[in-house]
Amino acid sequence: MTAAALAMQAPPQIKITWIGSGKTSPEDIFYGGVTTPAAYDFNLAAGVAEPEVVLESDTAFSYGTRYSHWGLAKWSWIQSFHVPFPVIDGVLFNHYLSQQSIYELEPFLTSAVAAKNGAFAHPPEGGGSALSRAEYGYQFDSATYGALFEKSAGKNGVKKIVSEISRIESEFTGISSIVLADGQTLTADLYIDCSGPQALLLSSLKVSFQKGRRIAAIAEVKAAAGPGAPVRTISGNQLGWNAETPLQNGVALMSVFDSESQDDIQSDLSKIEVTLGCREVAWSGNCVAIGQAAGVLEPLTPAPMVLLQRDIERLLSLLPITQEMSVERREFNRLYADDFEHADLFNRSLFEGPDFPDTPYWRAARQLPADEKLTNKIAQFESRGLHVAYDLEPFNQEDWTIMHYGMARRPARYDRIADQASPVKVGAYLANMRREIDETVKAMPSHKVYMEGLTRFLKQQNGLKP
Question: What CATH number should be reported for the domain holding residue 140?
Answer without folding.
Answer: 3.50.50.60
